[in-house]
Amino acid sequence: MAMSMFLNFMYPPPSSIFVTSMSIISFVVITNYGISELRGKHLNYSKFWNANNNSNNPTNSRNQIKLSGKVGMLLLYTPAFLAGAVSFWIFPNESFRSTILHGALTLHYFKRVFEALFIHKYSGPMVLDSAIPITLSYFMSTVTMIYAQHLTKDLQEPPINLLYPGIVLFLVGIIGNFYHHYLLSKLRVKGEKEYKIPKGGLFGIVICPHYLFEIIDFYGVFFISQTLYSLCFAIGTTFYLLGRSYATRNWYLSKFEDFPKNVKAVIPFVF
Prior knowledge:
Layout: H1 2-7, H2 17-38, H3 58-63, E1 66-67, H4 69-90, H5 96-118, E2 126-127, H6 128-150, H7 163-185, H8 209-225, H9 228-255
Antiparallel strand pairs: 1-2
Helix pairs in contact: 2-6, 2-9, 4-5, 4-6, 5-6, 5-7, 5-8, 6-9, 7-8, 8-9
């Protein structure tokens, strides 16, 4: 009964072994990264770029390949952006839903490339060992999501159509994410690298509203797509950003004595 109701919101699971395997792998791997963040083992970028280095073994730090913050961010997002852009050529003249999905993914990663070039102000480098799995995750998720949508071209639409609510969710997510990234960039004048307690927007109630809106963004993508893979990726991303935001809040608490204790990590008034 529950499964039947659930399938009203989605296309049937694909017959593709590749897409099914990627659905499981994406969910497990990304969720595991979220659990690692909760346990204090971080991917090395942003304020955690040097978090996992052992001060008793400085050789590990010296042997790591470090990228500048800007180069690292461009590495994360450019392959996924290109995959989205090329999808219009590889799968032309498909359904309206597919076109919207291709556009949403391309716009999402174009925004991230734009931010990397013109919005973000960087406090430190990015370790290549952390950049590679993130880059692969974004690229493979984009490719798989587009291919999973392609496999639905001859299938009947889900009984409950979430496409238009998905477009609204996606736009709310991408605009909210961009706005809070812009607020973060305004905390520093040119040349500054020190962190400050963010203010404005939803920063007064959660320390990571940009993550909150990214979660909304990817659930918007799932509503647009209505495939099993897009759902698995959205849920996995939720768990990862919950873990990352929890670690971020603890970091602010440890660095700033005046950090307001009522400010949650990512879900207003809850978490």
